[in-house]
Amino acid sequence: MLGKLLKEELKAYRFQMGVVLLAGLIFTVFLKVICMIPYQQEEVEITVQSLGIGVYIMVICLMAFAVQILMIIRFYSTMVGDRGYLTWTLPASSYQHIGAKLLGSVIWKLLVGLGMLVMLVIFFVGKYWFWMEDLTGSNMYDVSNIDIIKWIIQNIIQEIWGTIKPEDILMICIQGLSAFIWSLTALLMIYMCIAIGQLFGKWRILMSIGSYFGIMILLEIVGTVAITVMAWYSDSRAGMKQTMVLGYPTGVWGTTIGSLLGGLVTGLVLFFITNYIFKKHLNLE
Question: Domain range holding 277?
Answer without folding.
Answer: 165-285
